[in-house]
Specification:
Blueprint lengths: L2 E2 L22 E4 L2 E7 L5 E3 L2 E2 L1 H15 L9 E10 L8 E11 L3 E10 L4 E11 L25
Antiparallel strand pairs: 1-2, 2-3, 3-7, 4-5, 6-9, 7-8, 8-9
């Protein structure tokens, strides 16, 4: 099973219309499991050939939240705590795989693991995230498509 998750229009990590964003597409591979494969441009380097640590953390944060989304309607969450472990350099210009896995669910909170691997399967970075539900009054889950949250067949919202 590999089912494309929706993207948004303006999110830094997944936004299809964000000219400064990463435009990463994520796929659900099973209950509470999400993957993405991408190449990060040198525009996001901390130093030559290496993705900036803040960008690495943003990617790990995004995939953790996506692993916790569940079904329809999705469960949107804020990050309360993100513990990142940088194991090796995340390269620019080379394929990486991003993996998120849901761990524990409680009433308003949940935990997930996220990982970034190189093209040979070597673990480059990992994180454990504690997430908290976004209050229902702040997001209209009944009409997410009108807010730009949908599956785009290309990397543009047109």
């Amino acid at each position: 099973m590999k089912e494309q998750q929706p993207n948004s229009k303006h999110c830094f990590v997944c936004g299809v219309d964000n000219p400064l964003g990463l435009k990463i597409t994520f796929y659900k591979t099973g209950p509470g499991e999400v993957i993405a494969e991408t190449i990060i441009s040198e525009n996001y380097q901390g130093y030559p050939g290496v993705v900036h640590g803040g960008i690495v953390a943003a990617i790990l944060d995004e995939v953790a939240g996506r692993a916790l989304m569940g079904e329809d309607p999705p469960r949107f969450m804020y990050t309360a705590h993100l513990d990142v472990q940088y194991r090796d350099k995340v390269p620019t210009g080379k394929p990486i795989q991003i993996v998120g896995k849901a761990l524990k669910f409680k009433d308003r909170t949940a935990q997930a693991l996220s990982n970034i691997f190189d093209q040979n399967g070597k673990l480059l970075a990992e994180a454990k995230a504690l997430m908290v539900d976004i209050p229902k009054e702040l997001i209209r889950v009944e009409d997410l498509a009108s807010e730009g949250w949908k599956v785009y067949t290309s990397q543009s919202s047109e």
